[in-house]
Please model this.
Amino acid sequence: MPSLRTLDFGTPRRSATQEVALEVDGVAVSVPAGTSVMRACIEAGSKVPKLCATDSLEPFGSCRLCLVEIDGRKGYPASCTTVVEAGMKVRTQSEPLARIRRGVMELYISDHPLDCLTCSANGNCELQDMAGVVGLREVRYGMDGAHHLDAKKDESNPYFTFDPAKCIVCSRCVRACEEVQGTFALTIDSRGFASAVSAGANSPFLDSECVSCGACVQACPTATLIEKSVIEKGQAEHAHITTCAYCGVGCSFRAEMKGTEVVRMVPDENGRANHGHSCVKGRFAWGYATHKDRIRKPMIRQRITDPWQEVSWEQAVAHAAGELRRIQAKYGRDSIGGITSSRCTNEETYLVQKLVRAAFGNNNVDTCARVCHSPTGYGLKATMGESAGTQDFDSIRATDVILLIGANPTDGHPVFASAMKRRMREGARLIIVDPRAIDLVDGPHVQADFHLQLRPGTNVAVINALAHVIAAEGMLDERFVAARCEPEAYANWKRFVLEPRNSPEALEPLTGVPAALVRGAARLFATGGNAAIYYGLGVTEHSQGSTMVMGIANLAMATGNIGREGVGVNPLRGQNNVQGSCDMGSFPHEFPGYRHVSHLPTRRQFEGAWGVELAAEPGLRIPNMFDAALDGSFKALYVQGEDIAQSDPGTQHVTAALGALECLIVQDLFLNETAKFAHVFFPGASFLEKDGTFTNAERRISRVRKVMPPLAGLADWEATVALSNALGYPMHYEHAGQILDEIARLTPTFTGVSFESIDRLGSIQWPCNEQAPEGTPVMHIDEFVRGKGHFVVTEFVPTDERVNARYPLILTTGRILSQYNVGAQTRRTANVAWHAEDRLDIHPHDAEERGIREGDWVGIASRAGETVLRARISERMQPGVVYTTFHFPGSGANVITTENSDWATNCPEYKVTAVQVSLVSHPSEWQERYRRFSEEQLRLVETRKPALT
Amino acid sequence: MPMNVEHLVTMANQIGAFFDSQGTRQEAVAGIADHLKRFWEPRMLRAIEAHVAAGAAGLHDTVADAVRQLQQAAA
Model:
């Protein structure tokens, strides 16, 4: 079990290859050049007292507690700011040092409340520890002088308090906000004795620019900044290392516990995706796991208008299995299917697809990646041979030029955004391709060099224009291409992009991006050093999503930006296990490891392992399931951990399809929007209640560890096993690790992956096999997975979704920092303090034209439907484009979005919907209907009949 | 009731629009046929095949030819 208190080396590890030998307290030690004396001392086993130093921050040298003696040096240098030199002889203890340190501590304590026994940090306070270490026995100055003990506590932030009375002004919080998070929300106000930490311009924390990442709280050595959960519950008594269940960064966390109760989640400094950093969701928004809305017993009902009946797991599973078999007998083997979840573990996802293929006997399995990153899988497989990003996150440290397309990392992938901003402060350049002016366009201490503010739906035209400039101006890396790529396909592509119609000037009227900006961005990308492409759903969720992914791959290959640190093609995955759910064979045409179901040797392998004949044709994708349900050939669906009624486009189409099913089985933490149409409810288990693994956006497989028993009695994978057994296809697993072992046996890129190997290595990036026993941080180094890189001609095809006089604006949808996906988790936390409703962002020009003011209720009508939101006037938008989020079901954002989708994968075109916006005075008809239906469904669950005991 | 053919026609034409730009007409037809076979569930294929047999209204020529090619290969 990991320790609650990890060893703090005081200053960061240095990466120089040259070693420096010195002596500390008579002990020889060797450290990389550039290391501080403090770190060398601690590595040598000598503890140096410290307060302003911590190993996540650069040395600052303000507390004067870490002074040491060095032979040949005058005085007492601060060990944190003194760099090691060869042959140094350092002493950490002497009578003069002890006297100075006691004096320093005496001054600190003379302006600090003496309430240690009742202080929330008692037992975990560095100030208290240092007082003990230096042997402080008296405060000669008394407590009657000028002090800060009456300073007012700021309790505005929902998750932590700021008590200036306890502050020692060490600046660790300020530096953490700058160096680790990169927000610069905190500062030291005033001078000398009046110095005080201030959020923004002396604002309460909640009103400041603070993004509540928790870096300041983590850095604070006292109780000045401390979690409210610690104030409430006291210090934790044990900890487990686990993985965050929010975005695709996949941060490693230490779950600090009291018994089976979480006291706080602390980012793990050994986590290789996050290196000890976190965001407001992972750090603080975990309270949903024990929220009162959790449903803890299985339920069944005949019709969705019936009240729910609580039943035992055995009854629920038997009922579900009976219904599935009844429906197959009546409508055929292919009339049922399942949906796996990117919020569930690899093991659970694997089991659901196995259940569908082996027990249902068809390939009607899909996953929510269908509606986000399915074009990534298609596009990267076609061009480079593997359906995954090419780099690890740390690769950004060697990047010189970042091309960020259709992604908003400060909101969607905040911890990676911090790494990106850090690299930009070191000098990396940034090109942004986005219809909106996201934070990174012009933020504190980071500005984009180019913002190509394109019209939604013109991504492919822009990528072609960038390629045109690079090809026309002789900036192609012909040597890389000749060595690594298929020559004929490259020649075709080059001929295509060089056509005059693909020049920035020719495409400017279409894209809205000035040609000069495109030319400048292309030159920077091609000649600025290591260039890396990062992209998000602004690339994939278009009718040409897959084409754009291939266009991105083309650009990276054409400029030789593949196969080493600092470059690559990097999809930023939305949910925690999008990569994993795709890897595990969740798509209807692929077995685990992205192998097509028609491939006979692969199918024979799975048939041999699973002991059953498997279907050779692809199954239905999620949108196809809806169409088939409405056409009467698809009658039952098992949905694990997804809320398709809220997240999928064309809400009225989706809910009509769900309403047409004879049996809908939903497994979730809450009665989500989909469950309101369900006939069977399996209560789900949160990430805290089960063992397994998640795979993040960099292909990193990390452990999820059970820190408390499942509130409903079963982990999700156990419920799937029970359902399979009841269907007559027995599954035999006693532990989630056995499922991973089976995955490893059947998946060539996972052969070296097991709970044991992950525990040993910390985490593993696949491929992990005989060729790469410790995993693969960077892919395609010597050759592409498919052999030669394949260029694809990316003809721009305009979307069918066009603006006209009736629908003159384009709606695009997205996410916000404090909320996550459909909001089922974050809406049940204090994160609503930042975002309590979805709003429609509209440019001042468009608003004025319609007489719309800030906060007005506006109707948004598209060809698919209409909803009503309050308006927010925002210059982030370009005229003609409006934006909203979809975190609240009543907002009906997906009532407006259409069934248009990516040509290759059916990934919905969430990013382009033609709409009209107008002032209204009451909710839309759909919203009224939704409110009545939802209230009735909540009543039916509140009045559920208890299980007979 | 068959799958929503109008929607299938739209989807198939989108696939056609991509492969039309990938080479000769023959290559486009082969590419479309391969894509449909690899990614479309059998009832969707049956529905589009029936639509082609009924005159292929609204379907681009290359797509209709690809569907016919699939049918011939299966026969």
